[in-house]
Design goal:
The complex is a heterodimer of chains A (about 290) and B (about 575). Chain A is α/β, with parallel strands linked by helices and about 290 residues long. Chain A has a single domain (about 5-245), classed as Rossmann fold (3-Layer(aba) Sandwich). Helices cover about 30% and strands about 20% of the residues of chain A. A nine-stranded mixed β-sheet of chain A has the order 9-8-7-10-6-1-4-5-11, with helices on both faces. Chain B is α+β, with helices and mostly antiparallel strands. Chain B has helices spanning about 10-15, 20-25, 45-75, 90-100, 120-130, 135-140, 145-150, 155-165, 280-315, 330-365, 370-410, 415, 420-430, 440-450, 455-465, 470-495, 500-525, 530-555, and strands at about 80, 85, 170-175, 190-195, 200-210, 215-220, 230-240, 245-250, 260-275, 320, 320-325. In chain B, strand 1 and strand 2 (about 85) form a beta hairpin. In chain B, helix 9 packs antiparallel against helix 10, helix 10 runs antiparallel to helix 11 and helix 11 packs across helix 13 (about 420-430). Classes of the chains: A alpha/beta (about 290), B alpha+beta (about 575).
């Protein structure tokens, strides 16, 4: 038994190591100052997909990412780790998408891929931190969804069994597939890139990356395994009214820098009455309890 | 994201050394694999790009997985259960990561599942791994043994064993016994040929690194009644067949993650490698040379971590109102550490390039006869590899011990506590100047090249190279040091007494080493300015060392040697 698995992955600015110039004066993210990376929880999702591929030999892992042509790097990173192929969904019409428009475009691309059993992505991306796209894709495709997944235990007889990390512990759930699963950061780290795969796939590219270089273009064209799909809104037959800014009801009104500062310290005496007072206060403002 | 390759620009510089052009072209036989294997390079740039990318994976795994696991591995170590070794949890994770990344069998040909890397980038990976955890380098680095199978085993054995190593199975070299350490001629483990022609092993081995490996290379006595090295043969033991048990593992001072085993062989089935009687005199010698280069890489990696730990601490630690790095006494220690580190590393990679050249020619010679020019070149590099391997192993291991000592000194009282990595580095470093031949044995191997002039000839070649005007002064110093060395050699050889010459050997080898490393740093400086500081500090250091030895030899009366005999 083999599975067709689609991994949803996003190229994001690395907001974990934010320097002084991370934000522009107008309050927007200075993407040029931050390295573009594979969204961390999408890597956790990729690892789950690759584990399924090991469990069920013959399974196929396809990456799907939306972004400019340079997001092909996400597909290459997937190929380096054991994925079988990928598609970059790239069109100016997608620019400015909020989560609704993004999930619309992605679900259109998933439909275009057509043959799928499991769609798996990270819980959320570190740039927007919304955790909405995965669930929205499930809704648009009319599929069940399992969120906060930590481990996919099996996928057999039309059902997946998944461990979820929830606030009070871990629960194991079962769902029929096709299914959308979003993976939590507490899941296993993604495996390293494989040396042979890196040497093999380093030349993989979407057509627009090699269009200007005849030699590279011919090299990629002669080798199907190096070809990464590059799909436009037209390719996935998307309704332009639901794409990009036009399809995004979310409007950013204002962005501001918030600087966390420590409030004034307060000294509590080391006697029972003072400690009890503090505990009552902390329970009242929901810091503890 | 810590990456132990990309944060160390010196490595890239050695990866792109001018000699690499030739090494890569020969190793890839003018890129004949390009259309046969989808991961084979198409030209020199493509090959270097491949090495670069793979080393980046090594650097990432080391920075993100191996180094963070090191303390835990050192603390918990491996254990033995039911005669089998169970690695520390961190060790197992390290192994899983390196296997998944396909970093085993790096130097093996593609037909057998390897990456077909030259020795130089492979040794670079060893350097990086050792910085992260020197104990883990022992397990990972034992893939070297596949090289011996590749060189000396028959085609069938190569096809059966090498792909398994490339897929991640571990190896060991079972040489040492309770009564055969440095003196391997005394090996007693008995190999008996049965009536059907197959062989079995019986006896005991001791101090075997990773002794519960999947595939073992074993040195055993195949010729009954023989007592010396000529009665020993090399065998492959496959753990799948059973017959070898782990009796115990040693409780060591350092490299604690690497299990050092005592093994018992009871009718363990095995296969002969190559010809009988050549086990020690040919195969183990080749195996040891590879292993010695590996220890040099391990030493350089340890020097690197020692320097970095010391530097970080010296910047952080404040006393008398300022960071201690601002005190000349501290910063001098740090500059000398850095100079010894850089000197060690340049010697390591010079040696790796020489080994690459002669090994590749050896391999080509199996496919076609070498041309006359190629034969001359192969011989030239074979000799240099032979001369530089003991020099590199001997000196880099001594320097890494000195650097580990200084690293603790910089940490002061805190360094003596178990709270900082420096104490582990200190313990791990200690073995490097002992195993795979002590420093004293490296001197025995190197002294031949002092007396026959291999070092001096190479030094003269380097002397003939042009340097920029700014470095003329330092070159003159090196020329002067060379004269002192040449005079000292003449003076020692002038005394026709073997005991006296042995007594002085270590000094002469150290003098040669200082000059060679000085010239190599001078060459590096011509390519990259960032080496100039270490060049100056190292040559100042080397000049004093050479003068010290010259003075000792010059003032020594040969009859004084009796004062040095202990009873």
């Amino acid at each position: 038994m083999s599975l067709n698995i689609i991994v949803l992955a996003k190229q994001v600015p690395d907001t974990r190591n934010v320097g002084k110039d991370a934000m522009k004066a107008d309050g927007t993210v200075n993407r040029a100052a931050l390295p573009a990376i594979f969204n961390p929880e999408d890597l956790n999702a990729l690892e789950q997909a690759l584990k399924l591929k090991e469990m069920y030999p013959g399974s196929k892992v396809t990456l799907l990412t939306m972004g400019p042509a340079r997001a092909a790097e996400i597909v290459r990173e997937g190929l380096y780790r054991g994925a079988d192929g990928g598609v970059v969904l790239s069109d100016r019409a997608f620019a400015g998408s909020d989560t609704l428009a993004t999930s619309y475009a992605i679900s259109a691309a998933v439909k275009k891929i057509g043959d799928y059993d499991i769609i798996i992505g990270g819980r959320q991306a570190i740039d927007g931190d919304t955790a909405q796209v995965g669930p929205q894709v499930a809704e648009k495709l009319g599929l069940p969804q399992v969120t906060y997944a930590e481990e996919i235990i099996k996928a057999e007889d039309g059902k997946v069994v998944v461990k979820r990390r929830i606030e009070s512990g871990v629960e194991t759930v079962e769902a029929p597939y096709p299914v959308v699963i979003t993976v939590n950061g507490s899941a296993d780290e993604c495996r390293p890139r494989n040396a042979k795969a890196v040497m093999k796939y380093k030349h993989a590219a979407v057509p627009s990356e090699v269009a200007a270089d005849e030699e590279k273009k011919a090299f990629v064209e002669a080798r199907p395994y190096l070809q990464i799909g590059e799909w436009s809104a037209a390719t996935v037959e998307a309704d332009l009214a639901q794409c990009g800014l036009a399809g995004s009801p979310t409007k950013v009104k204002q962005i501001e820098n918030v600087v966390f500062t420590a409030k004034e310290a307060r000294k509590v005496e080391a006697d029972d009455a003072s400690l009890e007072g503090l505990i009552v206060e902390l329970i009242a403002n929901h810091t503890i309890g | 994201m810590a990456n132990f390759y990309t944060d160390n620009p010196a490595l890239k510089l050695y990866l792109t050394h001018p000699m690499m052009q030739k090494i890569v072209a020969l190793k890839e036989r003018d890129f004949r694999d390009a259309d046969k294997f989808d991961y084979a390079p198409r030209n020199y740039e493509d090959a270097i790009d491949n090495y670069d990318r793979v080393l980046e994976i090594v650097g990432e795994i080391c920075g993100e997985i191996v180094a963070p696991n090191a303390e835990d591995v050192d603390h918990n170590g491996p254990k033995v259960e039911n005669s089998r070794v169970i690695y520390a949890e961190g060790t197992q994770k390290n192994l899983d990561a390196t296997r998944k990344a396909g970093l085993m069998g790096m130097a093996m040909p593609r037909e057998l599942g390897g990456l077909n890397f030259p020795i130089t980038p492979y040794i670079m990976a060893a350097d990086i791994v050792s910085r992260a955890d020197a104990g883990f380098e022992n397990l990972w680095g034992l893939q070297d043994c596949a090289e011996t199978i590749y060189e000396f085993a028959d085609e069938d054995q190569k096809k059966r064993y090498i792909p398994r190593v490339c897929a991640g199975e571990t190896m060991s070299m079972d040489l040492t016994e309770p009564d055969a350490g440095s003196d391997l001629q005394s090996v007693m483990l008995k190999a008996t040929q049965k009536e059907d022609g197959s062989w079995v092993l019986n006896g005991v081995k001791r101090f075997i690194t990773n002794g519960d490996a999947d595939i073992h290379l074993v040195l055993a006595r195949s010729e009954e009644g023989s007592h010396d090295g000529r009665g020993l043969s090399m065998f492959i033991y496959d753990k799948r067949n059973g017959g070898v048990n782990v009796r115990r593992i040693e409780n060591k001072m350092g490299i604690k993650g690497s299990p050092t085993c005592e093994l018992t062989y009871k009718d363990a089935p095995c296969e002969l490698v190559g010809s009988r009687r050549l086990g020690l005199i040919k195969y183990v010698m080749a195996l040891m040379n590879g292993a010695r280069l590996g220890i040099a890489a391990q030493s350089v990696g340890l020097s690197e971590i020692a320097y970095r730990e010391a530097l970080d601490y010296a910047k952080e630690r404040k006393q008398f109102g300022k960071a201690i790095i601002e005190f000349p006494a501290v910063s001098e220690i740090l500059s000398v550490m850095k100079a010894k580190l850089d000197a060690s590393r340049t010697l390591l990679y010079a040696c790796a390039r020489y080994v690459d050249m002669y090994k590749i020619y050896d391999d080509i010679a199996k496919e076609r006869p070498l041309t006359k020019e190629e034969k001359i070149e192969a011989k030239y590099y074979s000799r240099l590899a032979d001369a530089f391997t003991p020099l590199a192993k001997g000196l880099t291991s001594e320097y890494c011990n000195q650097n580990a000592y200084d690293c603790i000194q910089i940490h002061g009282g805190s360094g003596f506590m178990k709270d900082y990595a420096c104490e582990r580095v200190y313990r791990d470093a200690r073995i490097t100047s002992i195993y795979e031949g002590t420093t004293q044995l490296q001197v025995v191997a190197a002294i031949r090249h002092v007396t026959t002039g291999t070092y001096l000839n190479k030094i003269r070649e380097m002397e003939a190279e042009q340097v920029c005007p700014e470095d003329e002064g330092i070159k003159n110093t090196l020329v002067f040091m060379t004269q002192q060395y040449a005079d000292a050699v003449q003076s020692v050889l002038g005394v026709k007494d073997a005991a006296y010459q042995d007594f002085m050997a270590r000094r002469l080898v150290e003098m040669a080493g200082c000059i060679v490393m000085g010239y190599l740093l001078l060459e590096d400086t011509q390519r990259d300015e960032s080496f100039r500081k270490s060049l100056h500090v190292y040559v100042n250091y080397g000049q004093a060392e050479v003068a010290k030895h010259a003075s000792f030899i010059g003032n020594f009366r040969p009859e004084e040697i009796t004062d040095y005999l202990e009873k």
